[in-house]
Amino acid sequence: QIGADVISYNAAISACNAGGMWQQAVDLLMSLDECMIQADRISYNAAISACEKNQEWLLALRLLLQAGER
């Protein structure tokens, strides 16, 4: 069995971003910690972009600050 990794999560987050599914993109980003997978710059960028496209400015800013802490 092959487990998920940051690359597969990034692909899923990016797909949600492209599909206008910002909430799912953020949910996937948050679930990385639960799966003991380290989110990377690409993970945060895709989720922040999804928030920005849907004018979720405060959430985008919160994610940006969270990314800077890592």
Could you describe the 3D structure shown?
The chain is mostly helical and 70 residues long. Helix content is 74%, strand content 0%. The chain has helices at 6-18, 22-34, 41-53, 57-69. Helix 1 packs antiparallel against helix 2 and helix 2 runs antiparallel to helix 3 (41-53). The longest helix is centred in the first third of the chain and has 13 residues, at 6-18. This is EMB2076 protein. Pfam families: PPR.
Topology record:
Elements (H helix, E strand, L loop, with lengths): L5 H13 L3 H13 L6 H13 L3 H13 L1
Helix pairs in contact: 1-2, 1-3, 2-3, 3-4
Low-pLDDT runs: none
Could you spell the SSE succession in H and E letters?
HHHH
Number of helices: 4
Overall shape: globular
Give the amount of beta strand, in percent: under 5%
User: What is the arithmetic mean of pLDDT?
Assistant: 94
Based on CA atoms alone, the radius of gyration comes out at 11 Å
Number of folding domains? 1
Largest sheet properties: none
Give the beta-strand count: 0
Percent helix among the residues?
Answer: over 70%
Going by helix content, strand content and strand pairing, the class is mainly alpha
| CA-CA gap between termini | 30 Å
Pfam families: PPR
Protein name: EMB2076 protein
